[in-house]
Automatic annotation (TrEMBL):
Alphabetical list of Pfam families matching this protein: NHL (PF01436)
Protein name from the UniProt record: Cell surface protein
Organism: Oopsacas minuta
Annotated GO biological process: proteasome-mediated ubiquitin-dependent protein catabolic process; protein polyubiquitination
Keyword Repeat assigned: yes
Domain of life: Eukaryota
Annotated NHL repeat ranges: 165-200, 377-418
Length: 418
């Protein structure tokens, strides 16, 4: 019996589909291989950049460590030389009974040793890490801390204060000075006398002189207290006895003062754009003209002065576009550190041992502290009548422990310590 022929199956489409799928799989395989290679190349570039940056950073660190090591070694050698010289001087002078020369030499050497050990700063270059071609911000590769300023000032409220209700109370404190022993001297404008306190605010003494009228600014040295008064009188009082040892009555209104190792006593001339130099007997021995473009006669007043660690003259101007300016020894302008936007009005300021600027802003009723470059570190206080508040802060000074003293001359009538 004959059977029908089985239908013929067409397999060509299936074979073609399998071929296309194989070809597509081969294509994706090649793409995956190429992508893996690109990723490997990119990671190799990243590792290369990281190795280069790490090498640069290590070189910078090694250079800075080498500089620090050299500085420390030089400082140690200099201190040893000074100590050895002092010992030899003591041995030599002991045989000749020249104790007064020995005392002077010891003071000078101790000051130089103190500068070498405590006041020298090393400014290192700023290191920045940059990496391309990829973004690595989410990786904390390194952290460099700013150690230019070894400490920051406290923000806590006043630890102690002296007000009108206490013994030796203040009626209108203005100028302020602190000696090396931490003793605080305050010029009471209304009572025309100097109140003396311990560093804890305990009243010690009252200094009075018949020539002292409305004292404004104070300056203290090892043995003497200098007082500048509203009646254009400049006095020198003995710290030990409180008695007047020198006086000068001048037509010039001397405001802020400071002691300089080379010039002696330096005083600002309030009405003029100049500073005066005085000898030990308070006789005027010269003037330095301050060459600044920001002084308007009759409007701007030269209020206060301090000598920086670099032996430059930092001068405070009242009602100036640039309240704090720095000059060299010849009176040439070096820089304008602060602007009127940073300090609205100030009559007093001081420098700490690192040349940080502490300035009382009477318009903002605050104590403001700036770096030696003029960058704001912190603000302390606000307008008010509680401890830690101010109503026209004026005289300011800082002791060797970093405690800050501020006089408040309106309504509060207080000395506050922070």
């Amino acid at each position: 019996m004959a059977t029908a022929d089985a239908p013929e199956v067409n397999t060509a489409p299936v074979v073609e589909k399998i071929y296309r799928e194989d070809k597509r799989a081969q294509y994706f395989k090649e793409e995956l291989t190429q992508l893996k290679q690109e990723i490997a190349d990119e990671f190799e570039k990243i590792h290369t950049v990281l190795r280069e940056e790490e090498s640069k950073l290590q070189n910078e660190i090694d250079m800075n460590l080498h500089k620090i090591e050299e500085l420390v070694n030089k400082r140690a050698d200099r201190v040893n030389q000074l100590k050895k010289g002092l010992e030899e001087l003591e041995q030599g002078l002991a045989h000749n009974n020249l104790t007064h020369l020995l005392a002077d030499a010891r003071i000078k050497i101790d000051k130089e040793i103190d500068k070498l050990l405590h006041q020298e700063r090393l400014e290192l270059p700023q290191i920045q890490l940059q990496c391309k071609p990829t973004n690595l911000n989410r990786y904390n590769l390194c952290k460099l801390e700013d150690k230019t300023h070894p400490y920051t000032y406290r923000h806590d409220p006043a630890m102690s204060c002296v007000s009108t209700g206490e013994k030796g109370g203040l009626t209108k404190p203005r100028g302020l000075a602190i000696d090396n022993n931490g003793i605080v001297y305050i010029a009471d404008y209304t009572k025309s006398q100097i109140e003396v306190y311990s560093q804890d605010g305990e009243h010690i003494n009252t200094l009075v002189d018949r020539k002292m009228r409305e004292p404004l600014y104070l300056c203290v040295s090892a043995d003497n207290l200098y007082v500048s008064c509203e009646n254009r009188c400049l006095l020198r009082l003995s710290i030990g006895s409180g008695k007047r040892t020198a006086i000068i009555e001048t037509q010039l209104h001397i405001s802020g003062m400071c002691i300089d190792a080379e010039y002696g006593l330096i005083g600002c001339i309030w009405q003029k754009n100049r500073i005066c130099l005085f000898d030990n007997q308070l006789d005027k021995k010269g003037e330095i003209q301050l060459n600044t473009k920001h002084h308007k006669p009759g409007v701007t007043f030269t209020a206060d002065i301090k000598v920086t660690y670099k032996q430059e003259l930092a001068v405070l101007f009242y009602k100036s576009s640039y309240p704090l300016q720095v000059f060299n020894r010849e009176g040439e302008l070096i820089s304008c550190l602060l602007s009127q936007d940073q300090v609205g009005g100030a009559l007093y300021f001081c420098l700490d041992s690192y040349d940080n600027i502490l300035i009382t802003d009477i318009s903002a009723h605050q104590l403001k502290i700036f770096t030696p470059q003029g960058d704001l570190l912190t603000r302390i206080g606000k307008k008010g009548q509680q401890q830690g508040d101010f109503q026209t802060p004026v005289g300011v000074s800082v002791n060797q422990s970093g405690d800050v003293y501020v006089c408040d001359c309106k309504q509060n009538y207080m000395l506050q310590m922070f």
